[in-house]
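TEACHING EXERCISE
Course module: macromolecular assemblies
Task: Read the component lines below, then compare them to the predicted structure of the full complex.
Student: A.B.
Group: 4
Components provided:
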Amino acid sequence: MKLRSFVLAMAAIALMGQSGAAQLKLNGAGATFPYVIYSKWFDVYHTKTGIEFNYQSIGSGGGIKQVIEGTVDFGASDAPMTDDQLKQVLDKQGSEVLHIPTVMGAVVVTYSIPNVGKGLKLSPEVLSGIFLGEITSWGDSKITSINQGMNLPDLPIVVAHRSDGSGTTNIFTDYLTKASKPWADKVGKGPSVNWPVGLGGKGNEGVAGLVKQSEGSIGYVELAYAVQNKLPYASLQNKAGNFVEPTFDAVAAAAAGSAKNLPDDLRVSITNADGKDSYPISGFTWLLIYKNMKDNDKAEAVKKFLTWAMADGQSYAKDLYYAPLPKEVLKMCEKKIASIASK
Amino acid sequence: MATPAIETAQQIQGDGNFPAPSVSSSPRKNRWRIHNVGDFVFENLTRLFGFVVFSLVFLMAFEMYRGSHLSIEKFGWSFLTTSTWDPVQDQFGALPFIFGTLGSSLLALLIALPLSLGVAVFLSELCPRWLEQPLSFVVELLAAIPSIVYGLWGVFVLVPWLRITVEPFLRKSLGYIPLFSGPAYGFGMLASGLILAIMVLPIITSISRDVLKSIPSLQREAAFALGATRWETTRIVLRSARSGILGATLLGLGRAVGETMAVTMVIGNRPEIAASLFSPAYSMASVLANEFAEATTEIYTHALIEIALVLFVITVILNALARLIVWSLTRKFKTA
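Instructor-supplied answer key:
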């Protein structure tokens, strides 16, 4: 008797939860980098409108694959899809994919040198020389010549990089490919590359761990991660020749500096951007939205969400250590959002 | 001469077919008649289960082969002998990973085997009764600790200790041997070998201890009666338990070869082959764990699946070798 009433009570509670109109639920998957802000957005938006977004941070590569296979309603990626991948989506799902940038991030170069604090300056030649294994000691004249006044010890450089495929590596190697010809010839860019030297750590935590543990080490992590864990980061010399620290303004300047060259489909890398205040290793992260969604309700919901994300959503970015999009890019996004097919 | 009693007895000794005792007519005719539905169902159901397990292995191997065919076609056997791992240029070679896996596993065995045997001998021969249970419990607890916890302990405790204390000391005293040369990062082959040794120790210890305990005490008593010392007796007992200990070792090796998370965190993840224990390396399981999710191109995914296939084949070979050695040892020395 007790079990029966228990089961009935559970059923009643379950049914209560179902009362009201069927709530819309959208599924997405993709990059881990913007996971924090997407979680916040989806949570706030759900409280506001009741529409539920479910996001799995399986990685940019996974997100793109699922968009091609059509198992998700939207995807997310730190690297734009290639023409070949777009064609696959067109063939398999019958729709184009719109790349909507949501926030910006930066990759910072962190280091751990005894008795050296903040303020290390690195030029593209030095950075690529270190990661190519050509510059092997912190006392090398190439480094000390741009860091007058810093007491750099003659310690061997321990390089740390990502062992797992990641969007962070993609942006970092993309920058090095643009800024250094030897790097472009020897290594190239991608989420995983054949690193000439260095130890591999898994995830941002792995690289940060390697850097903290080893004396005289250098590695690259996301800005958000470096700020939250209070890691020292270097100022990088941008295309205009100035040494810039990775701040939100510097990242926004990079986007603004690339604004006139932004292609219509917004699939662009903004590393090594023009502009005197631009931080050279900045990048967008995109939501991958089907232009022609099969479900009209979902298309409407996505449009409304994106409009909100471009407006109110941007205010959450800085607290979570992401850089909000500059005005020029927001305008281009609005046009793209309007082009999502819905009745 | 084949009376029903003898026939039944022969059948019980295990010719595979064990019908319910029916002593009415000759076994040959009755073999195909269902004597007992329950037994029929039981027999064939378990036969099915056995078949499923068997075919699962083949299915896995087949799927891995199918999933890696692009890479097999492109690289052929050179996949096993090349050292480049370049996802940008789509050039893949598995040699550094094979070296990393086998190297760290063999190093682990080298470190763990004497320790495990020592603990096993202590537990079975020399340990006072009151200490045996708690000590066994603690040893088996080592096996229960999750791999990732070992990895974290490795990163925060083992690696700094190696980098600051052990490796510089080894380099200073034995630096002329190539095995102990080169910069000391802490992360590397030595760290992964040590962690694997700790993970493999409980397996070898508990099985060896059981094997040693199962040696009839007559052996020991006979040895003592002939005037053997404690150590000589133990040597004799160890000799009898040879095959079991070898089996335990190979089981431990099997675990070491497949271990992923703990190794990934301390091995340095660098696909290169070097003579020094201090240099970073990369194991097959680690590269799969690290790179599979973000493998962009098809050839990249296929190359990774081919590494999985190679790992699978190596595991099968090791297990087959284990069986072979145990069989050859028990053949001429029929104990329990």
